[in-house]
Amino acid sequence: MSDQHIDPAGNTQAFRAFANAREQEAVAKPKKSPLIPIIAVVAAVVIVGVAAFLLLQ
């Protein structure tokens, strides 16, 4: 294995670039939308409602 790993804390510019890259990665991650679970719950309620309606007739 190579020992050419550069510690970003050893150089101010490298550390700033490292810190900024970490911040940009955190910001770039998309937020998960709650829309899909809501649609699944609504679909389940509709299916159960239709099944109950058909069984009670």
How is this fold's topology laid out?
Blueprint: H1 12-28, H2 35-55
> Helical segment tally?
2
Radius of gyration: 26 Å
Shape annotation: rod-shaped
Say what oligomer this is.
single chain
Helix percent reads 55-70%
| Percent of residues in β-strands | under 5%
Sheet with most strands: none
Keywords:
mainly alpha; rod-shaped; about 55 residues; 2 helices; single chain; about 65% helix
Q: Can you characterise this structure?
A:
With 57 residues, the chain is mainly α. It has helices spanning 12-28, 35-55. The radius of gyration is 26 Å and the shape is rod-shaped. The N and C termini lie far apart (74 Å).
Quick overview:
Helices cover 67% and strands 0% of the residues.
